[in-house]
Specification:
The chain is an alpha+beta fold. It is built from 11 helices and 39 strands. Helices cover about 20% and strands about 35% of the residues.
């Protein structure tokens, strides 16, 4: 610890010797006298007015902030060469993992710089592929994207969801696959939904139309599952499942591959669900509750001989697979097919005559095939340590497909002969990149409380550990989500210019099962921040870098991570990039689907103890006067109705008003974009150029492109 303190002080002294830079002149943001009382504690909220996404005042604030940001970024000398380098690197064909339904094969392909990937269809694997849907023709700027897609099992129809401007709101429309013509069906106000076919229609999830002006920020309540019959108006759709008493519940409906069962998953947070099932072949059947409460996860895999194959965390923090008889659903009647193992069971499906099970071990994927009795038959051989990026196959079908990637292994798609367990390359990456010039190491460091935490360190071979290397530190740490090795075109220039990319597998994620997740939930949330801080300290002590050379990045819950650690340890980082972050921990639950995150965060109104805990780390409420915070580029979007942009607006207003020193604190607000899904390629390239030029410029890198 003494060594770390000395390194940090030395870095601060070095910084102090640099020529003084002129502080930015930030727009004057109005402060109101708004105050709220939480358990007898008064909390000021002077930027409450920025929560109104429809007001002229907010629009003017957005314009003035974007003008300042673009003015700053335009002065970075290598910004345009970097953008050109990114565009050139990005420009290679990308093919998604094919899937089969209704006797046809489907896959997405992007020729290189198309704003949206195009959906292709083949009548069989030897037939010529033809374009089925090209989202690029739906809007001039590429801001209309496809959401869920679902061919009917009989091959007659193709239903798909459309998202506009990055919003989570979807519209479902239907194409006749025989004629290529569009049906009149149009399903509005769809959100957090699949499209599950049954007979001449499908099940989907939706809300009622929001109040005027509340579409992008109003609370999402009274979710329900409906059935739509083709050719009928949406007003005629039948409500299949809802809860009129508890408005803050989500419902997802799915149909087993053979159409025998409809199952409903009921949730009130991002983990834990109740499970119901109904036999569709029996017109008198009603829903049977297979599992109740929200303490455990249940996911239906498929129907097997009158039983439902289900993966669950019930008495299995790493997950197991069980058979549940809907006629005798009591827990004592469940039959364990695949018991809990020492690895996290990530996903399960039926392919050929096997149960395919995908595991995560120390944030690397492994996959095995089991027979229907649960005997392990064989292992899927993978090219190296890394991540399986999608697996598709059908019960009884000998052909399957999967993607595979790692930090320095561009994504390839493989075709699998299931019976012989042999893979061949179906589509290889053509990205202009030499993986042999780089290496990845995985290390385990001790966090503040002694917990061993893994992280991946990616860099050029032969890099010197002289304490001077620029580092980009990334993390997420929440919602049981595992951060796995993956290839990214956007970070290639940073690596090529001598940067080190570090991905930390923080507590709160799913890398080590339910207990690892719970160790970063609610009153344990500080563990997540301590892990991230511990990663930075390890890199400093072990001479990878120093505080003047560390940039941190995270999105959504990862944006909260960045906001929390930069306010807790502003001395430890030089650059901070919070992307679409949850930054107001006292009010997050009031917007759109925010209430569903309470399982991970807790709520400021649930108890005085939880309020005080949230207040202690809420980024918005922990910006202090006179502190020199890292150079900050916050990124959000005007159509983000997942984490509303007000989080970023308020946090950056507070940061600009209190920032000491010359580090810039600016915000980039994308228009006609949302939380990230469906973002057009042109916008991704522009955003990456702005983000990485800001990082490299403020880390005092001298890139040559």
């Amino acid at each position: 610890m003494k060594k770390l303190t000395f390194i940090i002080l030395a870095a601060i002294m070095m910084h102090a010797c640099k020529p003084a830079e002129k502080p930015l002149q930030y727009p004057n943001t109005l402060k109101s006298d708004q105050k709220d009382v939480y358990f007898e504690t008064e909390i000021a909220d002077p930027y409450r007015w920025l929560e109104d996404d429809n007001s002229e005042e907010t629009a003017q604030w957005v314009k003035s902030q974007n003008d300042l940001t673009q003015s700053y970024l335009s002065k970075i000398p290598f910004r345009e060469p970097l953008r050109q380098r990114l565009e050139s690197t990005w420009n290679y064909p990308k093919i998604g993992v094919p899937f089969q339904e209704g006797g046809r094969y489907y896959y997405f392909k992007n020729d290189g710089l198309q704003n949206q990937s195009v959906l292709y269809v083949q009548d069989n694997l030897l037939a010529e592929a033809r374009v089925l849907l090209d989202p690029n023709t739906m809007s001039a700027d590429g801001t209309i994207a496809l959401g869920a897609i679902s061919p009917s099992p009989d091959g007659s129809y193709f239903a798909y969801a459309i998202s506009r401007g990055g919003s989570d709101w979807n519209e479902i429309v239907v194409m006749d696959l025989k004629t290529g013509t569009m049906l009149s069906d149009s399903i509005q106000w769809v959100k957090f939904s699949g499209i599950s076919w049954y007979k001449n229609g499908f099940y989907y999830s939706c809300y009622e139309a929001p109040a005027e002006g509340q579409a992008l920020s109003g609370s999402n309540e009274f979710h329900k599952v409906k059935y739509h019959e083709l050719g009928k108006p949406q007003a005629n759709d039948v409500i299949v499942f809802e809860d009129k008493i508890n408005p803050k519940r989500n419902f997802y409906g799915g149909v087993t591959d053979d159409g025998e069962f409809l199952f409903i998953s009921e949730s009130q947070s991002t983990s834990g669900n109740a499970l119901y099932a109904k036999r569709l072949s029996d017109p008198k059947a009603t829903f049977v509750k297979l599992a109740e409460g929200f303490d455990f996860d249940y996911q239906v895999i498929d129907h097997l001989d009158g039983n439902l194959l289900v993966s669950t965390t019930n008495e299995a923090p790493m997950k197991k697979v069980v058979l549940i008889d809907p006629l005798n659903p009591e827990k004592e009647n469940w039959k364990v097919i695949i018991p809990e193992a020492g690895q996290v069971l990530e996903s399960v499906s039926l392919v050929g005559d096997y149960i395919y099970a995908e595991y995560s071990e120390d944030a690397n994927n492994k996959a095995y095939f089991f027979d229907y009795e649960g005997n392990k038959v064989k292992q899927l051989e993978l090219p190296t340590l890394g991540t399986i990026g999608g697996f598709s196959g059908k019960k009884g079908d000998n052909t399957a497909f999967y993607g595979f990637t790692s930090f320095t292994f561009p994504s390839n798609v493989y075709q699998l002969d299931v019976a012989n367990n042999t893979s061949s390359v179906y589509a290889s990456s053509e990205v202009k990149f030499d993986p042999s010039a780089f290496e990845t190491e995985q290390i385990f460091f001790e966090s503040k409380d002694g917990t061993k935490v893994p992280m991946f360190i990616v860099h050029k071979k032969g890099i010197k550990k002289d304490g001077k290397n620029p580092v980009l530190l990334y993390g997420y740490g929440g919602f049981d989500i595992s951060v796995m090795p993956s290839f990214s075109v956007s970070r290639l220039p940073f690596l090529e210019q001598g940067g080190i990319y570090v991905s930390v597998n923080l507590r709160g994620g799913g890398e080590y099962g339910k207990k690892w997740h719970e160790a970063g939930q609610k009153m344990n949330k500080q563990n997540v921040f301590d892990d991230f801080i511990g990663a930075a300290e390890y890199l400093i002590v072990n001479n990878y870098t120093n505080p003047e050379k560390i940039a941190i990045m995270g999105g959504s819950n990862g944006g909260l991570l960045v906001g929390a650690v930069m306010t807790q340890r502003p001395d430890l980082f030089k650059v901070a990039i919070p992307i679409v972050g949850v930054l107001d921990m006292l009010r997050y639950q009031n917007f759109t689907i925010g209430w569903a995150w309470a399982g991970d965060y807790g709520r400021s109104d649930e108890s005085a103890e939880m309020f005080k805990f949230l207040l202690k780390y809420s980024p918005l409420h922990n910006v202090r006067e006179g502190v020199s915070y890292p150079a900050t580029l916050a990124i959000t979007a005007d159509h983000d109705d997942r984490v509303v942009p007000a989080h970023t607006f308020k946090f950056m207003s507070e940061l600009q008003s209190k920032q000491s020193g010359t580090n810039p604190v600016i915000v980039r607000i994308e228009t006609q974009a949302g939380h990230g899904a469906g973002k057009p390629t042109s916008k991704m390239i522009e955003e990456s150029a702005d983000m990485y030029s800001f990082i490299m410029y403020n880390l005092n890198m001298k890139p040559k492109f």
